[in-house]
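Standup notes
- DV: blocked on the single-chain target, sequence here:
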Amino acid sequence: MALGTAIFPTLSNKAASGDGAGFSRTLLRAVKTVLLVALPAGVGLAALREPVVKLLFMRGAFDENDLAMTVFALFCFSFGLAGQCLGPVLTRGFYALQDTATPVKVGVATVLLNLALSLVLIRPLAHGGLALANSLAATFNVVVLFYLLARRVPGLDVRGLLAFAAGAALASLLAGGAAALADRFLAGVLAGGTAALALRLAGDALAGVLVFAGACQVLRLDEYLYLKDLLRRAFQRGMSFIRARPLYRSR
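- DV (later): unblocked, structure below
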């Protein structure tokens, strides 16, 4: 949501000036940035769903049955995290083109699909079916929105985006596997209360982040390399500023 709000003025300016290439470049960069965060986050939630729910809720009246139900719901919801995150960004793309009708029409179709899938999935999967229906509907929403945007804006590199999404998904799966292995190891080492569980999850997340960063580097994902260079230059500027300041000031 924050990213969609931040890029909206730029998208509007590009659309108003007829700069189709600039519009496509800005939108694609935003979509890739969201995927770079949402895909590993979704896989991480799926891989670490049980310790996450335990840390947040497992106390007092929250029993083992509640834990199992919530873990299953979180697992089903994790599949739709990328779709939920991309929705506001793609909607802003239509708003920048002064088209508010298309997102509404797609939104109505998404609600109807969500309802239909809920009715179909609730019987075999119970409450998890409702969560999975929401995830599938959110994914449908962003796929249709991007398809319609690609038809209106010729400069959108669909193949390049699909290749990036595949690479980010692969890196996310590797990171999720690393986080799950780390959790299996740390569960035997950090047995205890809430503090131990929080430390265990922090170790899991660190393992996942390191593997994800390494995989993105090996796969040469362009948006990852761009953000990495941006952070490196910001760090260098910060260190230069600190070194330029005197340690002590005379009164």
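- Follow-up: Residues 158-189 form the longest helix (32 residues).
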